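Bug: token stream looks shifted between consecutive jobs. Job 1:
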Amino acid sequence: MNSGTKRQKNLVSPLKKKAGRSNQGKITVRHRGGGAKRLYRHVDFGQSVRGVKGKVTRIEYDPNRTADIALVEYENGEKRYLLAPQELKEGDEVITDEKTPIKKGNRLRLKNIPVGTPVYNIALHPDGKGKIVRSAGSSATVLAHEGKVTHLRMPSREVRKVVNQCYASVGEVSRPEHRFRNIKKAGTARKMGRRPVVRGSAMSAVDHPHGGGEGRAPIGMPAPKTPWGKIARGVRTRKRKHTDRYIVKRASKKKKGKK
């Protein structure tokens, strides 16, 4: 993998820092700010060059995501950044089409992918861009084809239906070792744009439900709460959504002590 100093100049642009603030200047995401300067790499999640073979010229580090990206040069002269699957190397060929060989990095419609195949960068609308299963080391598994939908087992173990005309890439996302990364020191987190987090119990009572009291006091309530007074753990936060009808089986919680 390249160090990240090489990059395709026409596929990068400056990335403005927002420090967790909205267009009104109000903090909408806490504990954000600072961080090393980055350039944004324009990744073609839809792999829109179809029916044309592309050759991987470089595997690069992307500071904006957990996985690596691949610079692909197509036979028609176009160059694109793609989300790199595991084991993709320089010199390998990839192609996007309705039906392609089942090979890592190739992209095709779900209906043409055999049962049991791992896939990633899955679109939710026909001819749309890949929206889900894009983080390092993740993959979904094709479980079944039923009518106009395909059943996928997601990384969370949830089983979900996706229209089988949607595109997906074959393989698993690169850098599975990312989950074992140890940040080690506060300075590294600051370079990533993360600012310090203060415990609620260290605040005053007007700033947090856990605050107040003399010395080191317990939170004084049956369950921990957010700074806005909502229960923080063990409560479902998913609201009623029109996509619920596509869920066949909910994600199961892992029990303590079991993998």
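Job 2, same session, no restart:
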Amino acid sequence: MSKSDFMASAEDMKEQLGTSLCLAKWQQVSLHLTTGMNNSCYHPPLHEIDPGVIEIKPIALHNTEHKKKQRKKMLAGERPKECNYCWNMEDLGHLSDRHYRSGEPWALEHFDAIKDYSGDEDVNPSYVEVNFNHACNLACSYCSPQYSTEWGKDIERWGAYPTSTPHNAPEHFQGRRKPIPVREHNPYVDAFWKWWPELYPSLKHFRMTGGEPLMDKNTYRVFDYILALPKSDLHVDVTSNFSVEPKLFTKYLATVKELCTGEKIEHFMQYVSVDSGIAKHAEYIRHGLDYERLEGNVNEYLTKIPGRNSLTFIITMNNLNILGLQRQLEQILTLREMYSITYQRVWFDTPVLRTPSWQSLQILPPAYYGILEKTIEWMKLHRMEEGSDKFTGFKDYEIQRLERDLEWMKKGKKLTKDYLQKQRADFYRFFNEYDKRRNTDFLETFPQMKEFWQECKYYAEKA
């Protein structure tokens, strides 16, 4: 079969970029304004933004001294250690997100300029992701008080989780790790809005995350700005749990409908975070989620928004979601059949969860590999046919990404026995405490994982 344009572009960039260059270091930024932290995409660790510098130069929200050092390494042919996620994928022989990201138009158009840079330049990125606020109505199992006020309440009441290194310990979330409450002055949000008029003309993609952005006033301030100054080449993206109160969702949907009417923007992408197609699994992993409400909101969005929009499911690959993964992909095919008439409206991505490590795919026994392998084989049976005018099958890069996840999962066989026992013990310690605090029941929710649960319990009690 012929390759998709997306994969072909990534393969072309593999040749052009060489061994170290990634255009996202210049053209993409994730801003965590609640803590004053920054990274160029979600793979490298967050690093601090200097609050003194941004008072004078708001563009330094993106162009930090730390990031400039990493850019210089790339231009010199070095691989920055903070980008190991991509280097590891490439060393396994796969295309990495470095290739995919750099091959997208918002990054690719800057390639000729970037390869001749010194690394000291201040640039306005074309892809910006912003977390304005950590307010959230969920407390997902792999999240933290930095991104969820519900998690903050949990820790404030009960303290750290009793894993080998106390998890989400209150003392960890001090200083720069402590989110600035929404009602307090936030110099990073102030700097953003000072930078915004300069940034806006160069933007091609603007994405708002959280917390839960549907609950944040800055989300609607951005919408109002765009409605007042339409930008026909702008892609607007919002990541949501799609499980907020009905009144708030109605307000949000009305605003999105107005944005997507006419030619105010190029496209609106709704990202929906959900990790399993089995309701009780999804609600356990993402505590507080109302799965039935989410399904209803997804269908309402796809029915009522007139055009210039799509929806992407973010399926975070962790050791609790592979049992319900194929069910979720089946639901995605159904939605594609219903709503993708003249263009592809329903998408999904499968990023690998790396922390907390006891929720990693890599600590599962080899018996679980077969579940993911069967899902991939099923996807291949439902691959999009070459030259098809339908949008219901799976694309080559969607299958390739899940194959990449499977190979990463199998690297767990090379982990030491002591490491695996420690992580499995922490798996039990965490979810045993989780059940006590959240009034949930792991074995009732995941009866198929009883043997693994008992093994994890054994290592926890032995330790």
